[in-house]
TrEMBL record:
This is Replication restart protein PriB. It comes from the Bacteria. Homodimer. Interacts with PriA and DnaT. Component of the replication restart primosome. Primosome assembly occurs via a 'hand-off' mechanism. PriA binds to replication forks, subsequently PriB then DnaT bind; DnaT then displaces ssDNA to generate the helicase loading substrate. InterPro entries: NA-bd_OB-fold, Primosome_PriB/ssb, Prisomal_replication_PriB. The keyword DNA-binding applies. HAMAP family: PriB.
Amino acid sequence: MNQLTLSGVVCKTPKYSQSPAGIPHCIFVVEHKSMQVEADLNRNSYVRLQVVASGKQMQQQTQHLHVGQALQVSGFLNRHEGRNGLSQLVLHAQHIERII
């Protein structure tokens, strides 16, 4: 099982919902900023990525999230298509760890 791990800060207020099947969902956005080395040169890395956390186990990990909170999120990437027909890359969280 391949996982992506992203560290960053919650930059949009989490939205909580429940599917018709009763599955709890939390959607939030993580902002990542760092300095990386590429071809022996420093490069600023910046990304905002939407995160979807689903299920009762994830509900416990997301119940106290707030803007400005530092996190490390692990999961898998998936493509979501919006109502407008545009697709975006979304991180489906399988583990969330608060960074103090």
